Amino acid sequence: MAHSDQLLILDFDGVLCDSVGECCIVSARLLSRMYPEDNRPMPRTLEEVEPGLREHFFAHRLLIGPGADFETVVDAYRRGISVNTREELTDLVAQFDKECPRDPNAFYNERNLFRQDDMESWLALHTLYADVPERVAGLQQELPVFVVSNKDFLSLKLILAQQGIHIDDSAIFGKEVGLKKFPTIQKIAADQGRALNDIWYVDDHLGHLLEPHAAGVRCLHADWGYTTDADRQQAREENIRSLTLDEFGPAMLS
Questions:
Q1: Within 10 A of 176 (CB to CB), how many other CB atoms are there?
Q2: Which structural domains are found in the chain, ordered by start?
């Protein structure tokens, strides 16, 4: 390994995988479960999600962070509410939770139910970006690769295996770790005996890159994921290197 003294940490959604369809369907199923009196369907495909809800979800996807955001976005649709920024969505999450305390794991629990009910359909909803297995394999020839995500460990493990991406269980850090992204990066660095400036980190969510970047982590902003023009502009202002999908691979380590 040419970069064996370093290591690479990859986000999952928006870097390796486009799972927006799965997130939309799980969110729609959660809304149906939250309000059974509405007699909404339990969709298994995007086509089965009511068009208005589907459009509302896709319009808000770039604003969504952790699981509680998904529940808030679909509940807001039912109430006829839209937001335009991540800050507005954060405020709405707090408002809804104050009205009626929410289970922060409701979205993940709904995903688990869907996966248990129809594993084949659930797996089929995840699409890797172009040539991702080959890109990751090439990177693994250069340095150790880890995955850090807000997704649960089992989902990550199943999707990676089904798509032919071979990453050890010990190198997959899902939401069960109970830490935000930067503390997880710090944990991996400590466990692996690496300095922060020996770590490469790729994420499409600019907010996850700011603190690691300030601490010396070699951050790369994945501009093919769930990101906005405002994020790209801020990344430039913060001197965080932007990475295109074509550049995603061993050459990015230079």
A1: 10
A2: 7-18+128-253 (3.40.50.1000), 20-124 (no CATH)
